[in-house]
Amino acid sequence: MATTRKASAHWEGSLMEGKGRVAFDSSHAGEFDVNWAARSAEPNGVTSPEELIGAAHSTCYSMALSHALAQNGTPPTTVDTAAEVDFQPGTGITAIRLSVRAAVPGLTEDQFVDFAVAAKEGCPVSQALKAVPITLSTEFVA
Predict the structure, then answer these.
(1) DSSP codes joined into one string, 117-131
(2) How many angstroms separate the CA atoms of 60 and 67, rounded?
(3) What is the pLDDT of residue 89?
(4) Is the pLDDT of residue 29 over 90?
(5) pLDDT tens, residue by residue, 65-120
(6) Once rounded to an integer, what is the mean pLDDT over residues 22-31?
(7) For residue 91, what is the enclosing H or E element?
(8) Fewest CB atoms less than 10 Å from the CB: which of 69, 73, 87, 133?
(9) Closest CA to 35 of 7, 9, 8, 5
(10) Which residues, including other chains, have CB under 8 Å from residue 16's CB and lie 6 or more apart?
(11) Tens digit of pLDDT for each residue in 117-126?
């Protein structure tokens, strides 16, 4: 059964001088300010579409990796994932770098890397972002 989640944005003014707010409508987790400067320069306490994509990607990837490891009979103790999303004004999103650090009892580092790479390919957000080069770095904690 499919699920649907909803977020919304309100914007006022032009792209460069305007400002807006993004809301997590399904979860009611909050509303956050957004503006062009946060996207193209320094965030200064304001979010951007790229940061929101990074949040979604790092979360989805952690869940996909955790699930695959658990199905293997080697559930992780911890999985910490970061996503860096590059935005080039005039071009768009040009790269995403995932980095994962995980403690997985019962695996070798090589086995972990295999699971990590497969999770990157299979993560639903990675699938949705296929138009962007996505790289992965791993750190295995024995």
Answers:
(1) HHHHHH-HHHHHTTT
(2) 11
(3) 95
(4) yes
(5) 999 999 999 999 999 999 999 999 999 999 999 999 999 999 999 999 999 999 99
(6) 98
(7) none
(8) 73
(9) 9
(10) 36
(11) 999 999 999 9
What is the sign of the dihedral through the CA atoms of 27, 30, 36 and 42?
Answer: negative
**Mean of per-residue pLDDT scores for the chain:** 97
β-pairing verdict for 78-88 and 92-103? antiparallel
Taking the C-alpha atoms of 58, 61, 62 and 65 in order, what is their torsion angle to the nearest 10 degrees? Answer: -160
Environment class of 101 (CB within 10 Å of its CB; exposed 0-12, middle 13-18, buried 19+): middle
**Residue 127 CB: number of other CB atoms within 10 A?**
10
**Taking every pair of C-alpha atoms in the chain, what is the biggest distance, in angstroms?**
55
Task: Give the tokens for residue 90.
Answer: 């005039």
CA distance 58 to 96: 10
| HSE (side-chain half, CA atoms, 13 Å) at 104 | 31
Rounded to two decimals, what is the model's pTM?
Answer: 0.95
The runs of H, that is alpha helices, within the chain are 36-40, 49-71, 109-122, 124-128
